[in-house]
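Sample pair:
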Amino acid sequence: MTEHVRIDDPADFPPQEDTVERLWTPQRMTYVLRNSEDRPTKPKTKECPFCAGPKKSDEDGLIAWRGTHVFAIMNLYPYNVGHLMICPYRHVGFITELDDAELFEFEKATTLAMKVMEAVSHPDGYNIGINQGEVAGAGVAAHLHQHVVPRWNGDANFMPIVAQTRTMPILLEDQRAAYAAAFERLAPGLNLPLA
């Protein structure tokens, strides 16, 4: 027995009362509903976020994959939906400070991240890069991290330019979970460990 699904015709909706488009961001309610005393005014810790992340559960630390020498972590302030970073566990600022095993896994994990994004999100391309040093634009200059950002044809619109706003169609937790499942499935094919 097939269940009947009602589909409303947009022509039957009442006319729009103004010309303003709405951007619905329900995830912001956790911020809006917090008491003012709970809202951080400055960072609660000076610990490096890339050193702190692996000490937490994967969910709390936004960790998508843990290797032997490096890990993949979602960007808390993404340039684009699905943006993650590959970081060594060791607190070093420059790629030249990695030993051979770390460097190999660092780059191999970047390849794995691209395969994960292809399997989960089907991007048309990628931005991959490292900003080394504060002067080069590194937000966390003391801890090396490589950005892997999926891109789609037409993914940029007026919002970042006119409204200084990026629209994110999926919550970080949900994106992390989807990536984590794909990392687990694909890592063995690249001879990368699962922690």
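DSSP finds six helices and five strands in the chain.
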